[in-house]
């Protein structure tokens, strides 16, 4: 029997228009299932609730590899201008603005697209492959590819792929893929079905190559998404490490940065950079108590294209790992070292206050003094320190279990 996987996105809104849920799950078409995922729920912001429908359901089905799309809007009833004197929200129009043309609304057409999935092959060149062991379903193989916008069919595939940003990242926007400074990295799951090898889309990353005077580039990670059914399995770290290693091999690359990184991205980057740096001689355990050194900055920059700010975080994480925090002297030295860095912005505040004292009228000065009260600064500094250390401990735990 023919069977396949597909990504299903359902937006269901309760009749009282209050609690909409967005579900994405990867499952098989028809009845046969090798690997099912639990549904992931993400609530939609209040102002995105559609007005004027009863039993509204937005159905988006994507074939797992090529992301061919079925789009349908269903509802039991809707308000009409003639009887209710109000217009319902144009839900279909809004979604059509996001999904590219070429989708189908016909289930039979979609079924025939599913049958073509066996013809789908990952775009671009293979950078890295790895396996993940899943307790219930066994071993899975994944491939990371680097694709060019000029690969036949990739432009259209990317248009479908980037629609997921709109469903899962609040501040997402589309990129101008025609700009040849974009690099695209994709992860695929390779699986066998009825003797055939098929591929499912797992996630992707876009990177923009900024120019650095006089002859370097600075790749900047712009978008990164691992589809919800695959999150928390280590794919994000695999992708980031593969991309990092790729740019490290290019002499023209100065260093690698990220645009407006989310908290989760920073966690991922800390883990990957610590993993990469932990074997560098300048980060050796006996060097760590001597402080953050110029050698560390140089080696991280030259060998791994890591900038000074990120190298400093790596140093603090590795030093925490090497510090016996039950030893009062060691713990104190570590605390002072981290607080010294955290204190930077507060010190700037002090300098600004000194300048202000010279030029502000007394009543203006008092209003600014409130923001810079020393006691509050100390409390804030201590809280920042505790938060930083807690985050570092999670990275150290992950290095111990998954690196
Ligand atoms: C942020 C994001 C890219 C991370 O991808 P991911 O594949 O989930 O990342 P990983 O699986 O490598 O790591 C995530 C967690 O899973 C854990 N994990 C990793 N491998 C694991 C494994 N084999 N088994 C169990 N847990 C594992 C990690 O320890 C980590 O836990 P932590 O968050 O407590 O540190 C992904 O969540 C995402 O796409 N989010 C939405 C968009 C976004 O925020 N993008 C980033 C900025 S644009």
Alpha carbon gap, first and last residue: 40 Å
Fraction of residues in helix: 25-40%
**Secondary structure: number of strands:** 13
In terms of per-residue confidence, which ranges show pLDDT below 50 for 5 or more consecutive residues?
17-23, 27-47
Helical/strand content category: alpha+beta
Bound chemical compounds:
coenzyme A
* CATH fold annotation of the largest domain: Aminopeptidase
What value does the Rg take, in angstroms? Answer: 26 Å
Strands of the widest sheet, in order across it, are 8-9-10-11-12-13
CATH architectural type of the largest domain = 3-Layer(aba) Sandwich
Largest sheet: 6 strands, mixed
What top-tier CATH class of the largest domain fits best? Alpha Beta
Strand proportion, as a percent range, falls in 15-25%
Our count of domains comes out at: 3
- What do the pLDDT scores average to? 85
SSE series: EEEEEEEHHHEEHHEEEHEHHHHHHH
How does the overall form come out from the CA principal axes?
globular
Enzyme class: transferase
Protein name: Histone acetyltransferase type B catalytic subunit
GO molecular function: histone acetyltransferase activity; histone binding
Family: Belongs to the HAT1 family.
């Amino acid at each position: 029997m023919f069977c396949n996987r597909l990504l299903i996105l359902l937006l269901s809104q309760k009749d009282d228009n209050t609690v909409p849920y967005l579900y994405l799950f990867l499952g098989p078409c028809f009845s046969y299932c090798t690997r099912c995922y639990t549904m992931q729920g993400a609530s939609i912001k209040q102002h995105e609730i559609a007005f004027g429908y009863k039993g509204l359901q937005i159905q988006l089905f994507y074939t797992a590899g090529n992301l061919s799309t079925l789009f349908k809007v269903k509802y039991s009833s809707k308000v009409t201008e003639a009887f209710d004197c109000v217009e319902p929200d144009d839900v279909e129009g809004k979604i059509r603005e996001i999904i590219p043309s070429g989708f189908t609304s016909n289930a039979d057409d979609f079924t025939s697209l599913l049958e073509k999935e066996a013809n789908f092959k990952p775009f671009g060149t293979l950078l890295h492959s790895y396996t993940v062991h899943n307790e219930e379903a066994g071993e899975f193989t994944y491939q990371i590819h680097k694709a060019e916008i000029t690969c036949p069919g990739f432009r259209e595939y990317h248009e479908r792929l980037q629609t997921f940003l709109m469903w899962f990242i609040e501040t997402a926007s589309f990129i101008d893929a025609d700009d040849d400074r974009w690099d695209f990295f994709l992860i695929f799951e390779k699986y066998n079905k009825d003797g055939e090898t098929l591929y499912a889309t797992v996630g992707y990353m876009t990177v923009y190559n900024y120019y650095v005077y006089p002859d370097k580039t600075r790749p900047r990670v712009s978008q990164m998404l691992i589809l919800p059914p695959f999150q928390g399995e280590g794919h994000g770290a695999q992708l980031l490490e593969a991309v990092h290693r790729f740019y490290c091999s290019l002499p023209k690359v100065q260093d690698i940065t990220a645009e407006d990184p989310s908290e989760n991205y920073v966690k991922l980057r800390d883990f990957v950079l610590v993993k990469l740096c932990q074997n560098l001689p300048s980060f050796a355990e006996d060097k760590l108590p001597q402080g953050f050194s110029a050698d560390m900055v140089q080696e991280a920059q030259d060998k791994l294209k890591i900038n000074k700010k990120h190298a400093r975080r790596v140093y603090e994480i590795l030093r925490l790992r090497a510090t016996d925090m039950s030893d009062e002297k060691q713990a104190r030295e570590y605390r002072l070292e981290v607080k010294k860095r955290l204190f930077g912005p507060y010190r700037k505040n002090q300098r600004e206050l000194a300048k202000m004292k010279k030029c502000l009228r007394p009543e203006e000065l008092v209003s600014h003094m409130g923001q810079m009260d020393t006691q509050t600064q100390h409390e804030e500094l201590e809280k920042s320190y505790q938060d930083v250390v807690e985050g570092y401990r999670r990275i150290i735990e992950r290095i111990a279990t998954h690196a």
